[in-house]
Design a protein that fits this description.
With 180 residues, this protein is α+β, with helices and mostly antiparallel strands. A seven-stranded mixed beta sheet has the order 1-2-3-4-5-7-6, sandwiched between helices. α1 packs across α3 (48-58). β2 and β3 form a beta hairpin. It has one domain (9-177): 3-Layer(aba) Sandwich (Aminopeptidase), CATH 3.40.630.30. It contains five helices and seven strands.
């Protein structure tokens, strides 16, 4: 397990390594949060044993890193934030996040994203961070724009929700654009 640097802590939230129990809770949050709205990728409901094995296996993958988002003070599990598809040659990575419904629109996602962006740019030396979201997800679009992300493109008819196909929007932020 990798030690969590102090830069991944703030007065509101901190990012931490997930344990087995966290992995199960996060999967339940994901499955209970209309997962088809959260990702355009295939959705599978795993058993608790499968969830634990998947998270443990991901800990050894250098191209991705899962963090849990905890509230500072009471250590309450708020959600997760992940970076994946790390490309050391281009110094780029994609990120994704999930906040439990009862903790949304309270500033936790913004603060967790800000901490992760600072870590990726300043400590890992990356140049570009990307994110993808459905065109219907106005909350995620607003969050990305508030953090300084710019829309790079559109994946046409890429994301099916409730029998309707939506576009997905591609966003990125460069190291020179980030304001910690």
């Amino acid at each position: 397990m990798i030690d969590i640097p102090e830069s991944l802590r703030s007065s509101l939230v901190y990012l931490d390594n997930p344990d087995d129990f966290d992995a199960i809770i996060l999967h339940r949050i994901f499955m209970g949060s209309e997962p088809e709205r959260l990702t355009c990728r295939p959705i599978t409901d795993f058993s608790e044993k499968e969830i634990i094995l998947r998270y443990r296996g991901r800990k050894n993958d250098v191209n991705l890193r899962d963090f849990v988002i905890r509230r500072t003070g009471d250590n309450c599990l708020l959600g997760r934030i992940t970076y994946f598809d790390l490309n050391p040659r281009n110094r780029s990575v994609e990120i994704g996040f999930l906040i439990a419904p009862e903790y949304r629109r309270k500033g936790y996602a913004f603060e967790a994203m800000r901490l992760l962006l600072r870590y990726l740019f300043e400590e890992l030396g990356l140049n570009k961070i990307m994110a993808q979201t459905g065109e219907y997800n106005q909350a995620s679009i607003a969050l990305l724009k508030k953090l300084g992300f710019k829309q790079d493109g559109r994946l046409r008819q890429h994301h099916e929700v409730d029998g309707k196909i939506f576009d997905d929007l591609l966003f990125s932020i460069l190291a020179e654009e980030f304001n910690p």
